[in-house]
Amino acid sequence: MWGKFAKQLLKSKVLRCSVSEKVQRSSHFPSECFLQSIRCQHQAGVLLEELAAPSVAMIQNVEALSVDRFLRVHWEDGNQSLYPFVWLRDNCQCPECFLHSAKARKLPIENLDVDTGIGDVKLTNSKKVSITWPDAHHSEFHAHWLKKRCFSKRSRTEMQEELFLPEHLYWGSNLDIPTMSYDDILNNDQSAYNWLCALKKVGIVLLEGAPIKQGELVNLGKRIGYMRLTFYGYTWQVQDKVDANNVAYTAGKLSLHTDYPAIQYPPGVQFLHCLKQAKTGGESVVVDGFHVCQRLREQNPEAFRILTSTQIDFTDTGVDYCDFALQSKHSIIELDPNGSLLRINFNNATRDSVLNITAEQVQPFYSSLKEFVSLMNQPENTFCYKMKPGQVVTFDNWRILHGRRSYQSGTDISRHLEGSYLDWDVVLSRMRNLKKKLQPDN
């Protein structure tokens, strides 16, 4: 079910926007939105197939607006697009200006005339725009290429959605966790693509049927690209250890947190492979941090402002893969330049006693953080599950806060998870390449 869900959501931008709006506006849990979106897609199967077919962009005519230095394209669908002369010259696709094998620009910016005009412009077969520049250089642009790069707000938004998949489906305690076959992920491109799409949209996916052996995560990492090396190694063993160098390596309760805010660029995706599970305790707890952030923004805008604007120190010191003495600064809730949620940086164990704010700012900060954590721990926001040997949970470490209930430990290892990290750059790269392979026409 989740495979079809992810595949169909990405086929239709119209439907994706519809589902996203319903979820974003909901102040409760989106399990109803999950079901509603799935039902909607089932009922609109024909529409989805029609939307999946790419339309061919055709141009009616073009004109150069020399005073404003714009090329105006009149499309056969009645719309118009403006393209600045300087942008067209900068993005000339000829072999002299562009290395197609690397999809990289060869034209140096120092050789670009930012005030360039146009010598001549022609339209060929409604599909190509041919430009001769004042220095007699020739450029040719395909209609489809231009259409995708239109500077209208709608087109720019669609392109950003296609490149980065920014939509999220928020959830709470009634999450129906997406579950997929580990073997299918490794051996089937469509399954791998569906997995990564669900991971990006929902934030967490459970894989079942992985071999119960240490080191298996290396194969899953290679399926995407490469794993991230940290001071704990490429993989690390979550089990009760003597003289533990991390609170996760104990049998006690782990409060909700994101991993590794003590480094300047925390890993984006985390894998945890269950090799052995405790008979008593050891349940995993997860929270959709972005959903909680939205609730905090609505309920206490001042607390949200403080947690997005106050830089907090994190630290981590010890020896593992090698010795380390880490120090970083992050806001607890990090926003992108557009004010959208980007990342949560919170690990109470590694939050430093160093606090680089005035004494008067300390109390408001603690009050804001306490309210944020209280919201996280509300029963309606938490989802609890107990992993079984052979299961691999994959989740967005920038969005999902995770924790663990305490468990009984003895002389033998009673619970053993193996973990690893990947960066979102690597994951999104594989997703785009899989999409290109599976949907070449798009």
Oligomer: single chain
Integer tally of domains: 2
**Radius of gyration, in angstroms, nearest whole number:** 25 Å
Looking at the structure, the CATH topology of the largest domain is Double-stranded beta-helix
How would you name the CATH homologous superfamily of the largest domain?
Clavaminate synthase-like
* Whole-number mean pLDDT: 89
Domain Gamma-butyrobetaine hydroxylase-like N-terminal: 67-146
Protein name: gamma-butyrobetaine dioxygenase
Function: Catalyzes the formation of L-carnitine from gamma-butyrobetaine.
InterPro entries: AlphaKG_dependent_hydroxylases (IPR050411), GBBH-like (IPR012775), GBBH-like_N (IPR010376), GBBH-like_N_sf (IPR038492), TauD-like_sf (IPR042098), TauD/TfdA-like (IPR003819)
Brief summary of the model shown:
This protein has helices spanning 2-11, 13-25, 31-43, 45-52, 85-90, 143-148, 153-164, 182-187, 189-202, 217-224, 289-299, 301-309, 359-377, 424-438, and strands at residues 59-65, 70-75, 80-84, 98-99, 104-105, 120-124, 128-132, 138-142, 179-181, 204-208, 235-238, 254-257, 269-276, 284-288, 311-319, 323-331, 333-335, 341-344, 382-385, 392-396, 400-404, 416-422. It has 442 residues and is of the alpha+beta class.
Describe the protein in words.
- With about 450 residues, this protein is an alpha+beta fold.
- The protein folds into 2 domains: about 60-155, NE0471 N-terminal domain-like (2-Layer Sandwich); about 180-435, 4-Layer Sandwich (Double-stranded beta-helix).
- The protein is about 35% helix and about 25% strand.
- It has 14 helices and 22 strands.
- It has helices spanning about 1-10, 15-25, 30-45, 45-50, 85-90, 145-150, 155-165, 180-185, 190-200, 215-225, 290-300, 300-310, 360-375, 425-440, and strands spanning about 60-65, 70-75, 80-85, 100, 105, 120-125, 130, 140, 180, 205-210, 235-240, 255, 270-275, 285-290, 310-320, 325-330, 335, 340-345, 380-385, 390-395, 400-405, 415-420.
- The strands form 7 sheets. The protein has a 6-stranded mixed β-sheet with strand order 9-10-20-13-22-11. Strands 12-21-14-19 form a 4-stranded antiparallel β-sheet.
- A hairpin with a 4-residue loop joins strand 4 (about 100) and strand 5.
- Helix 9 packs across helix 14 (about 425-440) and helix 12 (about 300-310) crosses helix 13 (about 360-375).
- Mean pLDDT is about 90; it is low at about 5-55.
